[in-house]
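Q: Please design a sequence for this.
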């Protein structure tokens, strides 16, 4: 997720059928770069391992996402459409190269609801396959391996090596999820142990530190007693020893927020229990957390911004009260009073200058309403939020424009549970997601978008 400054130079080339090799470079504009304008479309897999501009994953939401050191985007699973006859839980793996506009179907089946193959713990194999899942936790380590944990009632940990194209089951429960909870085993605070294991969960915040350790905060799942709810625990996984360490927060679901003083770090501060938060990791390996469903004020959704650094949390901006409307101000102009409305499950990016970006999600706009999908784009820079693009109202159906051509009027339809990444030229990319009122929604996207800051 490291990019540079991109200047406004028109470079639009020929377009493919399902995807486009175009590079739209007009600043502050969206361009539709591939996929369908019509929701709920099946994928075009092509030949496994062979990139093509005709390839495209099927419509889906809640996938696991990664960006590698070369700026390629990786996508696993989620819930979505494989074909007109097959939809549900997915466990296919895809790679997108934004330099040539080509998707590659890397591994996994062309069917939904396929059973997992665990193989031998710690041993990679071409036949191994994680179960299909939604809203799982994902990381990429310093060697470029893709990591996957939990998602729903699963509590298994997986590693995929792009160099070999094989999955390895790294630990956890191999039993298929039932209504029996996979509770967390916390052990002693700050002490790694082979018996430690986080409870099954979804929608946690994840990041990788400078030493290659995998970190995870919160999510919705099961606590140390096997009770389901929102979590506020902090975990670290050390790949070199294969052990988890409980690093902070409560082992009991429903932990309250402790804000402390705005702008002042403290060991007693905590964002509390929440899931669906937006998160970023900057060049200094400091972690930023925004919003999410939490327990502040008796339950609700936040618009508070936090930073985690040197083992302490700092409340940076936003309200202590949940369910806040957005304060948009004037588009393109920063202001200390600006703040996105409360929301969950947006797409996020971190640019080369350390600015935070977020798009859409499920939340509140500038006017009183219920929570719906949004299509606004925000930047947090120099301690202030800037409303950059999209409407300050709810439910926008978007405007695609011609494939591969950027335009000020272009806009992705409102959505949440999408995937995003930044390429090596600093462009923001967006794929898939869904719109609706709950997880049974049937408006699933497989459109691909690019935005040039």
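A: Design:
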């Amino acid at each position: 997720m490291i990019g540079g400054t991109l200047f406004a130079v028109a470079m639009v080339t020929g377009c493919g059928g399902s995807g486009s090799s175009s590079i739209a470079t007009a600043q502050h504009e969206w361009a539709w770069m591939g996929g369908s304008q019509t929701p709920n479309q099946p994928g075009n897999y092509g030949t496994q391992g062979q990139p093509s501009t005709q390839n495209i994953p099927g419509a889906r939401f809640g996938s696991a996402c990664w960006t590698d050191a070369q700026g390629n985007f990786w996508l696993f699973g989620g819930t979505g459409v494989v074909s007109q006859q097959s939809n549900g839980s997915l466990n296919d793996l895809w790679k997108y190269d934004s330099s040539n506009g080509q998707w590659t179907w890397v591994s996994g089946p062309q069917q939904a609801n396929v059973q997992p193959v665990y193989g031998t713990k710690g041993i990679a194999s071409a036949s191994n396959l994680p179960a299909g899942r939604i809203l799982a936790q994902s990381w990429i380590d310093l060697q470029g391996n893709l990591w996957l944990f939990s998602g729903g009632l699963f509590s298994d940990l997986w590693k995929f090596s792009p160099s070999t194209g094989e999955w390895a089951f790294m630990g956890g429960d191999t039993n298929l999820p039932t209504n029996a909870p996979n509770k967390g085993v916390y052990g002693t605070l700050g002490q790694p142990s082979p018996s430690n294991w986080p409870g099954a969960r979804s929608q946690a915040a994840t990041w990788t530190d400078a030493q290659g350790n995998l970190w995870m905060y919160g999510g919705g799942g099961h606590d140390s007693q096997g009770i389901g709810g929102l979590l506020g625990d902090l975990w670290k996984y050390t790949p070199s020893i294969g052990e988890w360490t409980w690093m902070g927060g409560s082992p009991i679901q429903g932990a309250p927020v402790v804000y402390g003083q705005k702008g002042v770090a403290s060991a007693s501060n905590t964002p509390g229990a929440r899931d669906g938060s937006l998160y970023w990791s900057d060049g200094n390996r400091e972690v930023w957390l925004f919003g999410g469903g939490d327990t502040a004020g008796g339950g609700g959704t936040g618009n508070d911004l936090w930073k985690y650094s040197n083992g302490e949390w700092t409340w940076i901006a936003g309200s202590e009260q949940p369910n806040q409307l957005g304060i948009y101000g004037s588009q393109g102009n920063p202001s200390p009073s600006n703040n996105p409305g409360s929301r969950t499950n947006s797409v996020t990016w971190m640019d080369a200058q350390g600015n935070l970006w977020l798009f859409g999600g499920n939340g509140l706009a500038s006017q009183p309403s219920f929570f719906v999908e949004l299509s606004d784009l925000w930047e947090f820079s120099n301690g202030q939020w800037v409303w950059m693009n999209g409407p300050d109202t709810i439910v926008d159906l978007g405007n695609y424009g011609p494939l591969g051509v950027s335009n000020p009027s272009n806009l992705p339809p409102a959505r949440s549970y999408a995937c995003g990444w930044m390429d090596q030229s600093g462009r923001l990319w967006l794929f898939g997601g869904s719109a609706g009122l709950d997880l049974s929604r049937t408006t699933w996207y497989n459109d691909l978008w690019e935005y040039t800051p």
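Q: Thanks. Anything notable?
A: The chain is about 0% helix and 40% strand. The domain at 30-451 is CATH 2.120.10.80 (Neuraminidase).
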